[in-house]
Amino acid sequence: MKPNLSSFAARLGPFFGRDESLSTPQFAALALELFALQFQHNPAYQKICSARQRTPATVTHWTQIPCVPTSAFKELELTCLSPVERTAVFHSSGTTEQKPSRHFHNPESLAIYEASLWAAFQRHLRTANPFVSLTPEPAVAPRSSLVQMFETVRQRVGSGAFFGRVAADGAWTMDFATVIEALKKSAADARPLTLLGTAFSFVHLLDFLAEKRLRVELPAGSQVLETGGYKNRSRVLPKPELHALITRSLGVGRENIICEYGMSELSSQAYDSAPTLRRQAGQGSDAPERYFHFPPWARVQIISPETGREVAEGETGLIRIFDLANVFSVAAIQTEDLGIRRGDGFELMGRAQLAEPRGCSLLTA
């Protein structure tokens, strides 16, 4: 065990339960401290940093901390945990032909992951609702960080069910009959629920409803959490079209459809349910524009691929994330996703050209 990393995790933990933000000076100090610890205990990361001539002795601001591309998690063991300490691993959810990224965990790092995801989740979704997940259960998808996330939610809420299945080729399917039965029961009992799933899972469900000429009007207060990701497992729909179909087939309005952005290499997730108001040109009323925001213990930058510098407000670049909850791996992650800088959040645009398709990427029109 690494007592200094454990001590850092213990001091970070209380921030997960606070409503107020982690201030920028607090974040900066913690990020530099964590960088020094990861440089010391993560051999693969230390080699990357040294090759770039970035060390704890030369890095003076958190934005200078060397970022690791998500693709590096496929080739390197980017972890502070020795092989004997590792009790779990999350894999990226790309197509079966691709080599997956690997994010190693032990009980302590899993506890941090769960505390981080729950703190953010309950800020954006109604935890009084029972949960219906369109993903498989953890027993048949043990390497999916998304499934682990939904299982954590189920345990914290105290109710919920998984209706997904894993086919022989590894593809995720679902038991449509039992899903429809659960949805109809919610409608009959007038008890709202929260429906969780990837974009391709919702496409499969919506196509089934259309084929059977079915529509279920879920009770007021029901929510949908859509996590993106197609993995070549369904037709790809622009997000507005997908959400319009969800509203038409399930009666859940756009204001109750929440999008989540996460990946196996991170321990924190971003949500788009905190709308900002922007006056639309030529219209007399304010319309909500929803952008992704990470919780206070993570920071995002939108980086120009040409200059490596942060772009200006409203400009497009690659999404870079600094996640303090990644205590035992690497906190600074360079994604292959494109975003538009929107204040301290971002508007997701999809994958950069030539990037491998990743299962949890969110595609927009």
Q: What would you say this structure looks like, in words?
A:
The chain has helices spanning 3-12, 24-41, 43-51, 72-75, 107-124, 145-157, 176-189, 199-211, 239-250; strands at residues 68-69, 88-91, 102-105, 131-133, 161-162, 164-166, 172-174, 194-197, 223-226, 257-261, 270-271, 276-279, 286-289, 298-303, 316-323, 332-342, 345-351. Helix content is 30%, strand content 21%. The chain has a 6-stranded mixed sheet with strand order 5-4-8-9-10-11. Strands 1, 14, 15, 16 and 17 form a 5-stranded mixed sheet that branches. The chain is of the alpha/beta class and 365 residues long. α5 (107-124) crosses α6 (145-157). It contains 9 helices and 17 strands. Mean pLDDT is 88; it is low at 276-287 and 357-365. It folds into 2 domains: 1-11 and 21-84 and 298-365, no CATH class; 106-260, Rossmann fold, CATH 3.40.50.
Helix tally?
9
Structural shape:
globular
Strand content: 15-25%
Number of spatially distinct domains? 2
Kindly, what is the distance between the CA atoms of the first and last residues, rounded to a whole number of angstroms? 46 Å
CATH class label of the largest domain: Alpha Beta
N-to-C SSE series?
Answer: HHHEHEEHEHEEEHEHEHEEEEEEEE
CATH architecture of the largest domain: 3-Layer(aba) Sandwich
The main sheet orders its strands as 5-4-8-9-10-11
Main sheet makeup: 6 strands, mixed
Low-pLDDT sequence parts: 276-287, 357-365
**Backbone CA Rg:** 20 Å
Oligomer: single chain
Give helix % range.
25-40%
Structural category is alpha/beta
What is the average per-residue confidence, as pLDDT, rounded to a whole number?
88
Q: What is the β-strand count? A: 17
CATH topology of the largest domain: Rossmann fold
